[in-house]
Write a structure and sequence with these properties.
heterotrimer; A alpha/beta; B alpha/beta; C alpha/beta; A: alpha/beta; D-Amino Acid Oxidase, Chain A, domain 2; 3 domains; 9-stranded mixed sheet; 8-stranded mixed sheet; 17 strands; B: alpha/beta; 7-stranded parallel sheet; 8 helices; 26% helix; binds adenosine monophosphate
């Protein structure tokens, strides 16, 4: 006889842990399967945790959770081949609780902590357990098959929180294999540097942290962006590049991050650091229009598995993952009360998402992926032009200011078709805010 | 008095004994006391000249029941022998023999016990030891007040050379009875030929990228050209291409040769744990980003099946010149 | 048969281990696992029990966090788990642990005690031998094969320098498990679920009337090893690389 739970959760990432914590705190019987050796062992993310949801779930979690730094400094910079123009924002008020709800974290540690919280709340967490498929009854999902001895488990509902590369949502028939253009490959390294060096180099004090985003020519002219986030005594350094771009140009992930790290502006920030870890992971950045159906009889999709990543400049995934986990848990709790786990009942989940920032933001930024795709100039010509203009403007010479400005105007007109620039800028606002 | 428990290999003295003697001498100087050596066995025949100038007294503790080593018999014999003698510390090699004997002595003699020590010092009656923790990722320093049995890591200490000791060899009958050896050896199988890799000066080690057992003969060829021995990673041992006795790493042997050549070995932390003591490391790997390359002095990148033959050719050519 | 298995908790061997700000401890937020050799010990214990019946008891001594490794052993199929928990059990002195464990074992019936060959944290391999000496029972270290006979004797094959030897001894006896002894099982799902309900029995050293004294042996520092490897990378043609390597062997290693 297979064991039976109120809810089975697949995946102990932010989405799965949030759902498990909520369900267990409400007294539901819940089991989580995680394929990693421990929660977090397979997870790598750039590492900014947006925590409005977590702070509601576990108030003042930062007092006990393994957070690295709270983000007070954000820097957006545009790279040309060898130069950089940046907007640097430093807000000291973010050093007060709740720290603007943005923290850098190392997921291997954070996920382990979060899973432990769920466990303490009463959830059963089983690691080194790969879920292979479903147990069904007339198309309705009633349980899962786990790759281990005696691995059949039944439940009222299954929450799939198995991440970007959710094979199970394909098995459940909720989505096709995602198109290459809808997936970004994130490549990340952890580079260690002494704490004092990090604080000096990034102008930080106490537990303050910085998030640096890089645009333009990060990857030698190919579409993609880069980032550097400061942790306590290491940096998260990474890039993101659409899989389609990698495929079309025969690029290797390791080569791309090397290209980024070689840029003079980046190189100088990493100087003296030692690579501790390297990893690559998918990010679903198809946006709203690429989202799969999120429910089915007995099944709910959460987090990355549901394509819930805000494809704007914020690159926000973890908060959406946790929000969707909590909504899924609430939905299962209600479904259990009514004894109805049908799709119609579980669709309350989608409604909750619609009424929250999750789907509102997903909709607002729905065109962002397409806009970026259609404007390859953003990654090469524009940054080159912008920095060329800045170079001309700042070059010290004996030419009069009038002459310089005339030259600037001419050079600008000659290279960038103005209407296209304006159109692109207009569209770009949809990515930025 | 500092006592060194020596290790015998048949009728010769194992090299690890001389390293233990070197360590013993550090303590005897630091604690301003003498240095004695004791061997345990039956009908022990050793060359006196190898040892006479290296310790004050050399005891041969002999008994029929010590013909084949067992920890219980050895422990009982040495413990009874030392019970009425002064012993500030007992040093043993951290070989299978020494690691096994150490606690069997420490418990009845009521001494502390520290295994696998990589450096030693003593002053003001206090012994300072260092030992690697967590596969060599961290070094721990301990201070020890009082008496202890200490086993010393292979090759962490030099071999003791002759000094101005005026040694004396004394044969003693160990007091032992049948009840002292509950463990009896029924059978011994020697693994063909290979010398203990922890004692080799040069090791040529192969990993998963060697592809099969036959290709290990290529490593043998390189080892022969360099005058060394063959070793292996766990992946190669698990695949059955090499015997477990030559596995290097955390679950294998800790080696400290002058030169370690890692062929088609990626350099997993558990493997690196076994080679931290190597003086020089050469890696041969097709992947320049393999972790072993960062832990090597020299990394040759490319196919082992091309690089090793080329290397053998050049070594032979250089030898002729 | 009453079988006792001693298990140790160590940082995952693949994890990065770092020294904390105080300089005398490692950072504790690494993943901790059951010492790999102890998995062989638990597996062997379960096999003996499956053959002869009886009970497998797990023992662990430590300052914190031991529940997880004990639960893993229970999930594999052990019957009972005893945790000797005390703040004083934080040092890595196998002899001190042996004293504490022997005090507990003396209160229990036992035929076979199994330990791991060594802890992957200190690479000491002391505890088994010390425990056997304290209990005055035979010890067979680093075994790769174990056969238990109903008339309470055992035959064990163990690794020795340059080969293997087979030894015989009466029970009760202590064996330390080497790799190759068996293939440890993965816990089954029902095993995992059962283990979550099994209670761990806690004991304090004080209740055994022992005061672990570690005053003689004190940690004074932790440091990182210094590596002076140059990591020069050669590329290109095999014979050109070989020529470079020869230079290195001649000028630096000085063996040619
Ligand atoms: C390089 C990079 C940088 C990023 N930067 C940020 C950032 O700065 N801020 C931000 O908010 N978001 C960021 N993200 C996105 C964020 O990481 C994800 O949105 C978030 O982790 C999604 O959480 P999740 O729980 O849905 O999935 P995941 O975190 O991917 O967790 C899924 C879990 O399921 C497990 N699993 C998968 N399949 C199975 C199976 N069959 N059986 C059992 N277990 C299974 C996996 O092992 C994993 O633990 C980044 C992502 C990447 C790759
Ligand atoms: C608890 C525990 C203990 C362990 N103890 C040990 C131990 O004692 N010793 C040990 O070694 N391991 C140990 N391991 C295993 C360790 O983690 C690694 O799995 C193992 O070391 C890998 O062996 P490898 O380097 O030979 O194989 P791989 O990691 O597969 O590496 C093969 C390498 O060969 C290269 N290569 C392949 N083909 C070629 C070619 N034709 N030419 C050139 N290069 C090529 C590849 O680039 C790669 O770098 C332990 C693991 C655990 C979990
Ligand atoms: N704290 C402990 N609690 C229980 N068993 C232990 C403990 N420490 C060591 N052991 C056992 O003793 C073996 C050898 O450990 P060590 O002497 O630390 O190398 C381990 O493999 C365990 O079986």
């Amino acid at each position: 006889m297979a064991d039976r739970f109120d809810c089975i959760i697949v995946g102990a990432g932010p989405a799965g842990c949030a759902a498990a914590y909520k369900l267990a705190s409400d007294g539901m019987s819940v089991i989580v399967f995680e394929r990693g050796e421990y929660p977090g062992s397979k997870n790598m993310s750039g590492g900014i945790l947006y925590s409005t949801i977590l702070n509601k779930l576990i108030p003042e979690f930062w007092k006990e959770a393994p957070v690295e730094r709270h983000v007070t400094r954000r820097r957006y910079s545009m790279l040309s081949k060898d130069s950089e123009a940046a907007l640097d924002v430093n807000i000291n008020a973010f050093s007060e609780p709740p720290y603007n709800n943005s923290f850098t974290v190392l997921r291997a540690k954070f996920d382990r902590w979060f899973a432990k919280k769920a466990e303490d709340a009463g959830a059963l967490i089983v690691t080194e357990a790969v879920v292979d498929g479903f147990i069904t009854d007339n198309e309705k999902i009633t349980g899962v098959k786990v790759r281990m001895e005696g691995g059949e488990v039944l439940a009222g509902a299954v929450i799939l929180a198995d991440g970007a590369n959710s094979l199970l949502s394909e098995k459940a028939g909720l989505r096709e294999k995602p198109a290459a253009k809808e997936m970004i490959l994130g490549v990340k390294e952890i580079i260690s540097l002494p704490k004092e060096v990090i604080e000096d180099r990034f102008s930080l004090e106490g537990g303050q942290g910085a998030a640096l985003e890089f645009f333009g020519q990060c990857l030698g002219g190919f579409a993609g962006q880069g980032f550097i986030y400061t942790n306590a005594d290491c940096l998260s350094v990474g890039i993101g590049c659409p899989i389609s771009v990698l495929q079309e140009n025969g690029l290797k992930p390791a080569g791309l991050i090397e290209a980024f790290k070689k840029h003079p502006s980046v190189r100088n920030l990493l100087r003296g650091g030692r690579i501790e870890e390297y990893g690559a992971h998918m990010i679903p950045e198809g946006g709203f229009s690429a989202m799969p159906e999120l429910t089915k009889d007995g099944l709910i999709l959460c987090g990355d598995a549901g394509g819930l990543v805000n494809p704007s400049l914020y690159k926000e995934g973890s908060n959406l993952a946790m929000a969707s986990g909590v909504f899924a848990a609430e939905t299962v709790i209600e479904a259990k009360k009514r004894g109805d786990f049908s799709k119609a009942a579980l669709d309350a989940y989608v409604e909750k998402l619609e009424n929250s920032f999750v789907l509102k933001d997903m909709k607002r930024f729905k065109d962002a992926p397409e806009i970026l795709r259609k404007a390859p100039e953003l990654f090469k010509e524009y940054p080159e032009e912008l920095l060329e203009l800045l170079r001309l403007h700042f070059t010290v010479s004996e030419a009069s200011k009038d002459e310089v400005h005339g030259e600037l105007r001419r050079s600008f007109k000659g290279k960038v078709p103005a209407w296209r620039l304006l159109k692109n800028l207009w569209k770009l606002r949809r990515i930025i805010s | 008095m500092i006592w060194v428990l020596g290790e015998l290999r048949g009728s010769s003295i194992a090299p690890s004994t001389f390293e233990a003697l070197y360590a013993g001498r550090i303590l005897s100087k630091g604690l301003k006391t003498g240095l004695n050596l004791v061997f345990v066995g039956h009908d022990i025949k050793i060359q006196p000249e190898a040892i006479l100038k290296k310790a004050d007294k050399i005891y041969l503790l002999e008994h029929e029941l010590l013909n084949v080593y067992t920890s219980s018999a050895c422990g009982a014999a040495v413990e009874r022998f030392l019970a009425d003698k002064d012993a500030a510390a007992i040093i043993t090699p951290a070989s299978l023999f020494g690691r096994d004997a150490a606690p069997a002595l420490a418990v009845p003699l009521d001494m502390a016990c520290i295994a696998n020590v990589s450096s030693l010092d003593a002053r003001d009656g206090i012994i300072l030891v260092k030992r690697p923790l967590y596969g060599g990722k961290i070094i721990e320093t301990l201070s020890l007040k009082g008496r202890a049995v200490i086993s010393v890591m292979p090759r962490a200490f030099k071999a003791a050379e002759d000094m101005d000791y005026d040694g004396e060899i004394i044969s003693v009958d160990a007091s032992l009875g049948e009840t002292d050896c509950p463990v009896s050896v029924k059978e011994t199988v020697k693994e063909g030929g290979a010398r203990d890799i922890t004692e080799a000066d040069i090791l040529v080690s192969g990993g998963r990228g060697m592809e099969n057992a036959e290709n290990f003969s290529l490593l043998k060829e390189l080892a022969d050209a360099l005058g060394g021995q063959v070793a292996a990673s766990r992946a190669a041992v698990d695949a059955g291409w090499a015997p477990p006795s030559i596995q290097v790493g955390q679950t294998g042997r800790t080696v400290a040769p002058k030169l370690y050549v890692a062929c088609a070995i990626s350099g997993a932390p558990q493997h690196l744990a076994g080679i931290r003591g190597a003086k020089y490391v050469i890696a041969i790997n097709k992947d320049p980003d393999a972790p072993i390359c960062k832990e090597a002095d020299l990394c040759m990148t490319g196919n082992v099946f091309e690089i090793i033959p080329a290397l053998i050719k050049e070594i032979k050519a250089a030898a002729l010149r | 048969m009453d079988i006792i298995v001693c298990i140790k908790r160590i940082p995952d061997t693949a994890a990065k281990v770092e020294i904390d700000a105080g300089g005398l401890e490692i950072k504790k937020d690494v993943p901790w696992v059951m010492n790999p050799y102890d998995e062989f010990a638990v597996e062997e214990a379960l096999r003996i029990k499956e053959k002869f019946g009886g009970k497998v008891t797990l023992l662990h001594a430590g300052a914190e966090g031991g529940e997880e490794v004990l639960k893993k052993g229970l999930a594999m199929g052990a019957d009972e788990a005893v945790y000797i928990k005390d703040r004083s059990l934080a040092a890595l002195d196998s002899m001190a642990f042996a004293k504490v464990l022997s005090a507990v074992i003396k209160t229990k019936p036992f035929d076979v005690i199994l330990c791991g060959r060594m802890g992957m944290d200190t690479a000491s391999g002391l505890l088994g031998g010390a425990l056997a000496a304290l209990l005055k029972i035979p010890c067979v270290p680093a075994i790769k094969k174990l056969t238990i006979f109903p008339q309470k004797t055992a035959l064990a094959a163990r690794e020795i320098e340059g080969g293997m030897e087979t030894v015989q001894c009466p029970l009760p006896a202590l064996f330390t498990a080497h790799k190759g002894l068996n293939e440890p099982r993965y816990p089954s799902l029902s095993g995992i679920m059962r283990s979550k309900k099994q209670e761990i029995k806690y004991i304090t050293p004080a209740s055994l009337g022992i005061m672990p004294d570690v005053a003689d042996l004190k940690r004074t520092a932790l440091s990182y090893p210094t590596s002076s490897r140059k990591s020069a990378i050669l590329k290109g043609d095999a014979s050109a690389q070989a020529k470079e390597a020869i230079k290195f062997l001649r000028d630096e290693v000085k063996i040619i």
